[in-house]
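Worked example 4.2. Below are the chains of a multi-component assembly; read each line carefully before continuing.
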Amino acid sequence: MASFTLTPVEKGIMRCRHTGELSHEDVQTLASFLHDYRGKLLIDLTDITGEECGRHIHQFAPMMPTAAIFGAELDPGVLDFPDSYYTHQVKLFDTEAEALAWLREQ
Amino acid sequence: MSTQIALDTFVAETGGWVAAQLEACTRCGICAEACHFYQATGNPDFAPVWKIEVLRKAYEQRMTPGGKLKTAFHIEKKIDDQELLDWSKIVYEACTVCNKCSMACPMGIDLGPLIHNVRTGLAAAGLVPADLAAAVQKQLDEGSPLGVTDDVFADRIDWVQDDWDVDIPIDKEGSDTMVVFSSIEIMKFPENLADIARILNTAGENWTLSSKGREVVNFGFYEGSPEHTALFLQKLVDAATELKVKKIVVTECGHAYDALRWTAANLIDVPKELEITHIVALMDKFVSEGKIKLKKGAFDGSGGIAFHDACKIQRRGGHIEEPRRLLNILAPESFRELTPNKEQAICCGGGGGVIAIKEADPYRFAVFGLKIDQAKVAGADTVVMACSNCRLQFLDGIQHYGSELKIKGLSNMVAEAMEGAN
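Applying the procedure described above to all two chains together yields the following structure tokens:
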């Protein structure tokens, strides 16, 4: 079973909830999803620790659409990626409400 | 001041070939109908004949008696700063240097290189759009226009090796082949790295990446600066020489392929024995030599599949039949052609650095509407391509138009359909 779930939050926003350490298959599936998905992303890390997902968040960030992350303590450095015309804004939030409010404004 | 520098550069660039091309132009305007920016917007400023008008004016006013008389008697005004600024917008924001216009010209004028010459003059005068100039500066400062520094490159390759479970050799001296990816692939399409590595490993290719020549994108070529273009090309050739490879394979990047395959030889010393080719040609060769086997019809049954011909890989590079041979194995029942296609194909609208210029978004999206229409007419549900810059433009474009079109990289399809992959 995959260590993440994808569920719609509302029109144009999808929740990506991580439930455990990502397997190689999960990483490849997520990469493929990020290419095909055209909305915004609410990344919910409440079920895992920042240590478990920090590396993957860091690597996926340049591939993400506009995304708001909440639910785990992450080193802000994981979102240090080169800013360019192909990237979108990815931000960390303390709570789901804050993350969602910001996403709706984007 | 900038006008003077631009004009001096135009004149310096105007040798016999350029003068002959400018003299041969009858200004019939047929090239306009070939230009996707003109087709999509109807703006006469975007006609290729107008894009080179500044070069013609400079040539005429500086080099011909008629032109000198016209300016002396104020029949024609001299080129000024404002005029050059207007041309900067036209040739950088509404031209991908796709060179389809040259296919339409009844006089056989090669308009693309002439438009590139206009860019060269504007670059010398410091009139490159800010976004593009910033990317060039980043490539000068960090070695990458999109931020693929030494650390980012190493980190990214580690991640791909771990999570896609594939071996990617780096700096392996004595390899036959050095593979160079575009920064877009490294940052946005990391599965390209994994899939191309898997294809090369399965075929038994003795290959390597280079940490010194780690990416092939050349923003100096986009801006039209021969000095910057040469500088970025030299890094690749030096890396290949250091690793003693026989061949450089450019992956899914069109402009970079043009720069390395043809322009390099005119700007720097490229060892004669160093072969430069594109991944599409290599994959086709692997299949024809039986080095990789593809599952026939692996992508049939999920709707129509069309191939988007990239200007620099197909029209300029001539790799027209290779992707079709591959697709006729991968999806013989579902493959269909967009119209027009092959060397007459319509550019995606994002090439030539246009995608990197925010102010050009309205033009590139207008142009992309033509691609959506093409796909609809062909009954294509998926469009495949072998250029990651086109792919990025397609992804942006389908989002802009809310289209359901699916986008695929050819290398990804080949890797997915490969039997007995390593």
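Take a moment to check your reading of the output against the notes. Chain A touches chain B at residues 24, 27-28, 31-32, 35-36, 38, 55, 59, 62-63, 81-87 (CB under 8 Å). The longest helix of chain A spans residues 24-36.
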